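Hey, I'm writing a tutorial for new members on how sequence and structure tokens pair up, and I'd like a real worked example in the thread rather than a made-up one. If someone can provide the structure for the chain below, I'll link this post from the tutorial.
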Amino acid sequence: MKKLLLFLVLTGSAIFANAQWQQTSCPSGNAIICLAVSGSNIFAGTNGNGVYLSIDNGTTWNPVNSGLTNTDVRALAVKGTDIYAGTYGNGMFVSANNGTSWTAVNTGLSIDNIVFISVIGGTIFVGTDNSGSLLFLSSDNGSSWSSVSTGVNFFTSLTSSGSDIFAGTYGGTVSLSTNNGSNWSNASTGITATIVRAIAACGTNIIAGSDNGVFLSSNNGTTWNAIDSTAFYISVAEFAVSDTNIFAGSYGGKVFLSSNCGATWADVSTGIVSSNVRSLTIAATTIFAGTWDNGVWKRQMSEFATAGIDEININGHFTIYPNPATNNLTIESLQQATIEITNIQGQTILLQPIQQGKTDIDISGLAKGIYVLRLNSNGKTAVTRIVRE
């Protein structure tokens, strides 16, 4: 029987321990700006040494720059079997042979400084940082490009939710397009930031990473709420999403994880030595982090599967068991408290007071999955995850 022992903190969260990130051999002399995965191949773009490729899950890396006339690579993306690289100064390149050779694809692309690439459905979007029309799209695999940034300048990132496209901007806003980028409207109510660098979709949530932490919208961008976490005191640079898990890389050299589509977060940076985590990608069972000053790091996804369940720091105020649970959850408490259980969308499923001693909670009516449990007592909160099997 698995038990959780929790202690109260000002804004509690699970502590992930006994596992850590490992540095790979990818050269760290230049910043790792972007990462991408194509099958078993992992690509890393740098700000001066072009593109590196690993075919052995990050154990070894080799440069793959034939035909790449600019080695300042700011963006990478995969569409089918093609790899796209955006450079800062020479526009877009594509490789159809896993980086063995690259070909320029810039017809109609009037601006050469590429800062991101997003593949949404069958369309490739690229953003630049020059003045003027800064978003371009290609519906023919990069053979031709057209400008679609009507009304908005300085995009930083894109994501999609259904038929809607959301864009982060250098102005600290989020823009929404319902017609594949042809027109945009402001969808930023509640966001207080000067730059939104990263944006992602998870379930029914849209998550925006900014220089003022993380903001979450559960109503398709109509309104946003700041995530109450002191973890995000430093700017968020990048997201990577896998099912209900969202990883966030920060300009403080940290990686954070939310296992409930952005509702709560925990620091999972143990082992990384860097001042700036600029890029993240997930390759099958491994997550990779590209840093500004110390190459590429990796960690097994399995290490996060039970993090926050079996590996909680203990101090004896509350005991919660079993976890995972099937029908009943038992809480042993040394003090009165209020228990709240929310789903991955942040909706409250259960809210009730508990007394000192033992309390049994019936969870047989919950759907199988991961939930967030909060214990509030004397103005303080402890937060962890529970699993209903």
